[in-house]
Amino acid sequence: MKKTIYYNGTIITIEEDNPIVEAVYVENGKIVKVGSLQEVKSYAPDDVNMYDLKGNTMLPGFIDPHGHIVAISQTIMITNLSETNSIEEVKSMLKSSLKNHPPANGEWLIGFGYDNTKYKNQEHPTKFDLDEVSKDIPIFISHASGHLAVANSKALEAFGYVGENYTVPEGGIVHTIEGSKEPNGVLEENACLCPEKRKCIPAPSFETMLNCVKKAQELYASFGITTCQDASVDNSYHQILSGAAKAGALFIDIVGQAVQSVTMELLKNEGTPKREYFNHYKLLGGKTWLDGSPQGKTAWLTQPYYEVPEGEKEDYRGYPTQEDEQVYEYFKTLIENNIQINAHCNGDAASDQFIRCYRKALEKTGNKTELRPVMVHCQTVREDQLDAMKELGILPTFFLDHIYYWGDYHYSSVFGPDRSQHISPIRSALVRGMNYTVHQDPPVKMPNQVLAIHNAVNRQTESGRVLGPVQCLTIEEALKAVTINGAYQYFEEDEKGSIKEGKLADFVILDKNPLKIDKKELKNMKVLTTIKEDNIIFERK
Prior knowledge:
The protein is of the alpha/beta class. Helices cover 32% and strands 21% of the residues. The two termini are 28 Å apart.
């Protein structure tokens, strides 16, 4: 049995009645004793291992409340376009990938992370740009938001978007060449994201995916994360994650959310909303999308965009991905089966739909079980909506990194100077006594919870503009967002999220004490070591 005492550093427990302790004793992966070093040493046996923190700071392991680890695994295999600043750079990187890592026979050349807001006139690449890379190999590149993509002619052919006679799935848009219905290569939402279209892209081998899942876990661990999520679990993703669990290849906890089309196929009613892990993997809830992204201007708003996309009417507000009846029926089915709901809502019109349909489904079923439904992103959620969410028990998880990465664009183009001050109103949730969390939606952005803490406290854009200063959290409040509050969202507050006797020994060690440094320096803290159940899963060299 492994036995360890952690000592000689600042240990922040996230427990209000015992916030800082000198030492922690761990036995068999669980915390047995916390307190002074003398108390802990007198409790522990003589053969205990002494782990010297060397003056560094230890906290509970960070918890990722929303993300896509299988997609992160896939990005390891594909061309990362997130640093490109022009369409020419996109083409150049794809040509380099094609030359140095040509796809096997039948496979596609895949890219991820292009951001048209960085390009001249904010133009998207088109099929004509990608055809310059190859007309023979299907090419598919995803936007940084994950809600748009571009395909070359060969990939469009595989999707069935050829000529002018084709059908677009509900909730999707195919951009066309001006004056015709011929696709120009840009696809929105279900035009490329629905299961029917996703199946067109051939999957890699299980062995390749297993190796990439391992690397993805290493990435998460390097950011101090000991519990993460996959919010897009379909049959193939479930096979990957459950297969990795059976193979003993998982070393951080992964919480799966099953996509709408297969939720009931994968998640059977077990009589309780809290489900158990099998070798670090569990399916917890169901996931749906009610709109798109604000930076892609596909989020569904109640007020028009500050600058509407080219070709749209002045009152353009984005659009829903589903009608109310479909959302209501899905919610009702999940509530009847005690399954947690997770719904993507960037725009406040989408938030209205969530609240409206959830309230109706709850009233219809009469279910009194605490299900902790989650509204994901909450970019433009209003004060009156937070009141309704509090009443219904809906938990908000905020994508605060939007402020850092896209806040200037939101200020100048998406929402304008006034509305941009009200995005991600996390303090408004806190003062209502709501459980709140923060996320990066990886692979949209990397699962960097240190940066999330910084953004929750500072709300500063890349240019230095502060958006919504009244919504800033204190450092202590931000630390809760990435630890104990995340555990609560997963029904795991009794096992994780704080350093307390009886909980798992999931820890992150930082080179600086977040409670002692200037708040502007929070993002510069480094993760030195990540520990899962008393086992080191990351150590900075």
